[in-house]
Amino acid sequence: MRIKDLHLLTRFGEGWSFLYLEHCSIDKDHQAVEVVLQDGRVPVPCANLALLMLGPGVSITHAAVSVLADHGCLVVWCGEEGVRFYASGLGETRSAWNMLHQARAWADESAHMKVVRRLYQIRFEEQFSEDLSLRQIRGMEGARVRDAYARASRQYGVGWSGRSYRRDNWSSADPVNRALSCANACLYGICHAAIVSAGFSPALGFIHTGRMLSFVYDVADLYKADITIPIAFQEVAYGVDGLERRTRLACRNRFAEESLLKRIIPDIQNALMIPRRGKNAVSETTEEDLSPAGGLWEPGGGEVESGRNYGANEHVMEGDYGCPDDGAGI
């Protein structure tokens, strides 16, 4: 079996969505992890887990993080109920092809605008006139979001006075805002896991900008009106006892029902105009791309092979890069 075949065995869209843990210890258990609680130990197979969210009071061993990384599970350290984000690990993709494609589209104003329009069109699930300005499109999206909140409010009989919560005073928000924040945190985590799993950058957003998770917000917005907004109002209608936990469980169930894991990467490819060569293709990755050092940049947008001593080439001029001690081939 080739390296490329091994790399493609685990597919993001075929995994489980997420697991949120707090006030426990996590250790390695063979090729899985084990959650140690006051009343016992719970083994957690991690081969198909997309995202592990670690809340307050969690300690995790180096061995557990290592086995999670080996299986391509994104580990996120977050605040209570998953609302605050502190740090994350690295996805399993070793090729930078998708990130480079994203960066080129982000840096080119014309291509950037095309991606913005495509993201909005995916949200609308329809094409709209090329004559519409970005300001007009934003106005249409704002009306759509207001309608989604109003529709959920009527459907579940839960009052709605606007989106508002304070990260430094979680309990001051009304129940529906707390449920929305909790549901969106789960959605952000899954979108973040998909983005890094496929080798994109979570920071290079097109609609959102200036934050390390800007692209996560771009992608998550594709699903809020259909998934997290109805879930939040539904769970508040059931009562406020255990609201955050029930919201997380409802999100996990809805993500499975909607096959969300199978939708995110194709939607990203659609927005970024990346051709898909097969059902689960996510990049132009080759076996050479998976080498430890990748390639070496060449003028004109090309690259040459890494891992070679170019000082041994009689055509290399004095002062050229590639000597054994410069680290270029390490």
Describe the structure in your own words:
The protein has helices spanning 3-7, 62-70, 97-107, 109-124, 134-156, 175-197, 214-220, 224-238, 243-257, 260-271; strands at residues 16-21, 24-29, 32-37, 40-44, 49-54, 58-60, 74-78, 85-88, 295-298, 302-305. The protein has 330 residues and is of the alpha/beta class. The protein contains ten helices and ten strands. It has a four-stranded mixed beta sheet with strand order 1-5-7-8, sandwiched between helices. A four-stranded mixed beta sheet has the order 4-3-2-6. Helices cover 41% and strands 15% of the residues.
Brief overview:
With 330 residues, this protein is an alpha/beta fold. 41% of the residues lie in helices and 15% in strands.
The shape is flat
Radius of gyration: 22 Å
Q: Note poorly predicted spans.
A: 1-10, 278-291, 316-330
**Separation, N- and C-terminal Cα atoms:** 25 Å
Q: Characterize the main sheet.
A: 4 strands, mixed
Note the beta-strand portion. Answer: 5-15%
Helix content: 40-55%
The average pLDDT score comes to 79
Order of helices and strands: HEEEEEEHEEHHHHHHHHEE
Structural category: alpha/beta
Count of beta strands: 10
- Tally of separate helices: 10
**Side-by-side strand order of the widest sheet:** 1-5-7-8
List its traits.
4-stranded mixed sheet; flat; disordered C terminus; alpha/beta; 330 residues; 15% strand; 41% helix
